[in-house]
Amino acid sequence: MIYLDNAATTKPDSECLKSTEKYLISEFYNPSALYKGGYGLQSELRETRKNIISLIADPENFELIFTSCGTEADNQAVFGGGKRGNVVTTEGEHSAIYSTVCELKQRGIEVRFAKLNSDGSVNIEHLLSLIDEKTSLVSVIHVSNETGIVNPIAEIAKKVKLKNKFALFHSDGVQAFGKIPFRLAKDIDMYSVSAHKIGGIKGIGALFKRKNLVIKPYIYGGGQEQGLRSGTENVFGIKNFEFAVLKKYENITNNYSNVAKLHDLMLKKLDKTLFTVLSGENCSPYILSVSAKGLRGETILHEADDNGLIIGTGSACSSNEKKRYSRVILACGYSEAIADGVLRLSFSSETTESEVLMAAGILNKIVAERKEKMA
Questions:
Q1: How far is residue 177's CA from residue 374's CA, in Å, rounded to a whole number?
Q2: How far apart are CA 23 and CA 19, in angstroms?
Q3: Of 152, 122, 139, nearest in space to 81 by CA
Q4: 3-state DSSP of the chain
Q5: 348-369 residue pLDDT tens
Q6: Using an 8 Å Cβ cutoff, are 255 and 47 in contact?
């Protein structure tokens, strides 16, 4: 089986799972408890926060709120930051942001959507034109989960603050964290991440938050996570996240370079007479989006699955919405015929060259045979 749907989820790292095992078996205590075992875990979690934060930011300026997933982190940022006036975001956001701001609209907050360029990047000029003195929150995805485009969030955040210094800036960094090298700039207030995209387990995510930034709690209860996200801490998940992310960042530059070679190899081997390439030059090498124009991507996905190849057709989260066409791909200016045939191939640091070559062969064969039948 060849697995090329790593943007949806990655295989949990076996070494990290083994290292985390003790937090289920022997170190299972409640970290809020006052006895030695619980207090020891609370101290350990403080170090864990510093370790994760230091990978992309200064622990003196940022803090970390652990959540159940990237979607919850996005929700906390939007509902915590979009409290008044208007909220500005893009037409290319993951559904965790898009659906959440739509809910804000139902609650009386005005929502403004910035247009996309053809590669899926936000039109920065249009985004800035939507910001005024009443804007409370701006959210721009870092790496598109559908096209892989990398938005220059540091540059955008700086320009947002020049337009309105009181507007909060958030970015969904789920497809960037642990994959592309970067540091959080001072103008970025909040940043969402997820463990299961980088070899961690499902059920744990986090929101980076600038210190001294006041936002309301998302879940109320016992006051865990600095009172911003109550609930007994998932120590097993948090420690697994730490081990996974430390392992990724130890090799992030080499991983990026190796995946870029696999990305380019796939581009080279896919038959350009059969596929339209949607991912542009400034995209993360971890995601390659193409379209088999005139065919249904979902049909190709199932046939590829039958041939031992697992791929995606876009956002896995959006598949539950039962919408035929991706709103993001349409927002890039593509036709419904292109949007209908979208396939997302996403790599990991464990993907091999032989897997890429076999995958390209499988896809070329499937699409060629289907188009021949239609002729």
A1: 42
A2: 9
A3: 139
A4: CEECECCCCCCCCHHHHHHHCHHHHCCCCCCCCCCHHHHHHHHHHHHHHHHHHCCCCCCCCEEEEEECCHHHHHHHHHHHHCCCCEEEEECCCCHHHHHHHHHHHHCCCEEEEECECCCCCECHHHHHHCCCCCEEEEECCCECCCCCEECCHHHHHHHHHHHCCCCEEEEECCCCCCCCCCCCCCCCCEEEEECCCCCCCCCCEEEEEECCCCCCCCECCCCCCCCCECCCCCHHHHHHHHHHHHHHHHCHHHHHHHHHHHHHHHHHHCCCCCCEECCCCCECCCEEEEECCCCCHHHHHHHHHHCCEECECCCCHHHHHCCCCCHHHHHCCCCHHHHHCEEEEECCCCCCHHHHHHHHHHHHHHHHHHHHHHC
A5: 999 999 999 999 999 999 999 9
A6: no
The predicted pLDDT at position 229 comes to 85
Token pair in block for residue 58: 């200064």
CB count in 10 Å sphere of residue 342: 27
Instruction: Supply the pLDDT for residue 52.
Output: 97
- The pLDDT, as a whole number, for residue 248 is 97
The phi and psi torsions of 174 (rounded to 5 degrees) equal -60, -40
Q: What positions carry a catalytic annotation?
A: 317
Residue 209 has a pLDDT of: 97
pLDDT of residue 334: 94
Q: pLDDT under 70 in the chain at which residues?
A: 314-322, 375
- Percent share of the chain, pLDDT over 90: 84
In this predicted model, what pLDDT tens digit does every residue of 229-255 receive, in sequence order? Answer: 878 889 999 999 999 999 999 999 999
Q: Report which residue type is found at 363.
A: L
Q: What separation in angstroms does the CA of 50 have from each of 15, 246, 306?
A: 22, 12, 45
- Per-residue model confidence (pLDDT) at position 375: 67
Sheet holding 287-291, edge to edge: 276-277, 287-291, 342-346
- Tell me, yes or no, if the pTM score tops 0.90: yes
Two structure tokens written together for 348: 């990991």
